[in-house]
Amino acid sequence: MSDPLALVSVLAGVISLSGTVISSSLTLRDTVDLLRARWVAKIKRLEPYALPTVLYPLLSPLTDTLGIMTHNVLLASDTTTLDYRARRMASCSMTGVAAALVAQVTNTSMQQEFTPALHWSVSALWTCGLVLSLLSVYYSFLLHHWLAGFASADEVRRAFTHRGLVTSSRRVEGVPSLTVAARLWVPAWLLSASIGCYVLTLGLYWALAWKGWWGVGAEAGRGIGNRNVFICYILTVLGAVAVFTVPSAVGKILEDVDNLHLYREELKHVCRSGPADVPDPGVSAAKSVVGRNEQIGAAAVALLTAAEAHRSAGTASKGLADELDRLVDELARGKKKDVSKVRTDV
């Protein structure tokens, strides 16, 4: 009874999340603003590379990887950088193993009973899925081998930094490498594409076997059985996809709605002041703290900068960063605090 109860619980959670979005105050204007803000953020991430605008839609999936590289490598401490490399190497191992399993299953499925007599598209799609999974295994191995070759965090940063074609700007500090982002992203994408290709081909296989097209599968009353298998396939795919994609989509929407008001406030400020910079959520959060009291002055700005530096340096400085944040709050309330008394031996 545990499996049916678990399935009912998951479906109830999916329906509850969907109801949260439907019952929220999300309007058409909010949706348009969310899509615009997301697209503007992707454009801003790709602008330093001076690429043709027509390539932006093709490269937009890499923007998340570029952001992760910036925060975990270029602007991170040595410990965080090496930890990110270790996590990426572990991810390569898991991707390679999963892709090898998909390749084995695909190769076995190509020996199905009706496959030789069905339309060539079935064999073609299974062949494409097999090639994609094998390439995912190979690229995962190459990426793992490449990441293992770095001896220090500085070498990782140099490799992950963007290099321009112009001699005067061969290396752009603080900008992640677009080619490295593609190398990190491709193996997992090939694995996803191979799984999707396999699932799609499996449905096409049973659909053709059910209909008996090209004289296959319908003889001797087998058409009804193949139809039932195809119906079970449709229900399974829809249920499995909905259980994962619906909560993910709803969670992303709720996160965007939470940041929508902050984006609109910063956009109004940009329109009034005139600069062409797109609002940055991280900078906006710091400005909102300072904006609580305009009399905080340069001292609060210095404290915020120091707190962020200590927080980025690692967990050992987190206590000092929290103390600096507390000083900012006291300055905002008008209290006086001697900064020299702050403990620096946290």
Describe the structure.
- The chain crosses the membrane at residues 6-28, 117-141, 184-208, 229-250.
- Keywords: Membrane, Transmembrane, Transmembrane helix.
- The protein has 346 residues and is mainly α.
- It has three domains: 1-44 and 243-276, no CATH class; 50-217, no CATH class; 280-341, no CATH class.
- 73% of the residues lie in helices and 3% in strands.
- It contains twelve helices and two strands, in the order H-H-H-H-H-H-H-E-E-H-H-H-H-H.
- It has helices at 2-23, 28-46, 56-59, 63-74, 78-109, 120-148, 153-160, 178-211, 222-273, 281-290, 297-313, 318-332; strands at residues 161-163, 171-176.
- A two-stranded antiparallel sheet has the order 1-2.
- A hairpin with a 7-residue loop joins strand 1 (161-163) and strand 2.
- Helix 2 packs across helix 9 (222-273).
- The radius of gyration is 27 Å and the shape is globular.
- The two termini are 53 Å apart.
List keywords for this structure.
mainly alpha, 3 domains, globular
Number of domains: 3
Report the strand count.
2
Share of helical residues: over 70%
| β-sheet strand percentage | under 5%
Morphology call: globular
Largest sheet: 2 strands, antiparallel
Unreliable runs: 17-23, 274-298, 335-346
Radius of gyration, in angstroms, nearest whole number: 27 Å
As laid out across the biggest beta sheet, the strand order is 1-2
Number of helices: 12
In brief:
This protein has 346 residues and is mainly α. It is 73% helix and 3% strand.
How are the SSEs placed, and which strands pair?
Blueprint: H1 2-23, H2 28-46, H3 56-59, H4 63-74, H5 78-109, H6 120-148, H7 153-160, E1 161-163, E2 171-176, H8 178-211, H9 222-273, H10 281-290, H11 297-313, H12 318-332
Antiparallel strand pairs: 1-2
